[in-house]
């Protein structure tokens, strides 16, 4: 390995180390949670759009069904009255409507399938997001406790005072009460 490649690798390692120190883990964690929430909201928006599309298609299907039913009644009446020209005309009109009706049914079935799959995906991701929120909360509380313990190390504050230290503090305070020199307390 050449000296130059070793220097470059060392420089990269140093840069990564410095970047790791700059990164605030809590802020990054919160940003990742916000990104997850945004992704979930986008998927929920897509789900709302799929529902709206399915509903529009269902309304359109109802219109086609109604139109086909009306034309079928007219066709039956034309056949009863032996109006073959009108019957042929109505058959030509009904056939494309029935084809389009079948296409709409397939489209709605596809939308239903896509809706179910997306709902499952969203519920799984929402559950995972909530789990991560809990774990993140635990991590943040733990890191805050650690920061607190660094700010107030248990060295002096956590240990019991010896009898000699208590007596010394008592003497200093008595001198102060008598108007003596300033004292330096233990705290």
Give a structural overview.
85% of the residues lie in helices and 0% in strands. The protein has 187 residues and is an all-alpha fold. It has a domain at 28-152: Orthogonal Bundle (Helix Hairpins), CATH 1.10.287. The two termini are 57 Å apart. The model has no long low-confidence stretch (mean pLDDT 83).
**Helix content range of the residues, please?**
over 70%
| CATH topology call of the domain at 28-152 | Helix Hairpins
Gross morphology is elongated
Given this structure, which CATH class of the domain at 28-152 is correct? Answer: Mainly Alpha
Task: Point out poorly predicted stretches.
Answer: none
Describe how the helices and strands are arranged.
Elements: H1 3-22, H2 25-80, H3 84-151, H4 163-177
Helix pairs in contact: 2-3
Core attributes:
single chain, 187 residues, mainly alpha, Helix Hairpins
Brief overview, please?
This protein is mostly helical and 187 residues long. 85% of the residues lie in helices and 0% in strands.
């Amino acid at each position: 390995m050449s000296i130059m490649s070793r220097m470059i690798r060392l420089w990269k390692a140093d840069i990564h180390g410095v970047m790791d120190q700059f990164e605030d883990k809590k802020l990054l964690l919160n940003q990742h949670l916000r990104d997850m929430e945004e992704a979930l909201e986008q998927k929920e928006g897509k789900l709302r759009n799929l529902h709206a599309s399915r509903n529009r298609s269902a309304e359109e299907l109802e219109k086609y069904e109604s139109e086909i039913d009306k034309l079928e009644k007219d066709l039956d009446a034309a056949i009863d009255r032996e109006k073959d020209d009108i019957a042929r005309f109505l058959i030509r009109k009904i056939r494309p409507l029935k084809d389009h009706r079948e296409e709409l049914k397939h489209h709605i079935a596809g939308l239903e399938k896509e809706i179910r799959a997306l709902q499952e995906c969203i519920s799984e991701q929402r559950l995972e997001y909530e789990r991560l929120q809990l774990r993140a909360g635990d991590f943040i509380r733990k890191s805050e406790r650690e920061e607190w313990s660094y700010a107030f190390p248990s060295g002096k504050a956590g240990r019991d005072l010896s009898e000699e230290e208590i007596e010394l503090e008592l003497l200093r305070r008595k001198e102060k009460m008598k108007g003596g020199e300033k004292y330096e307390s233990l705290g």
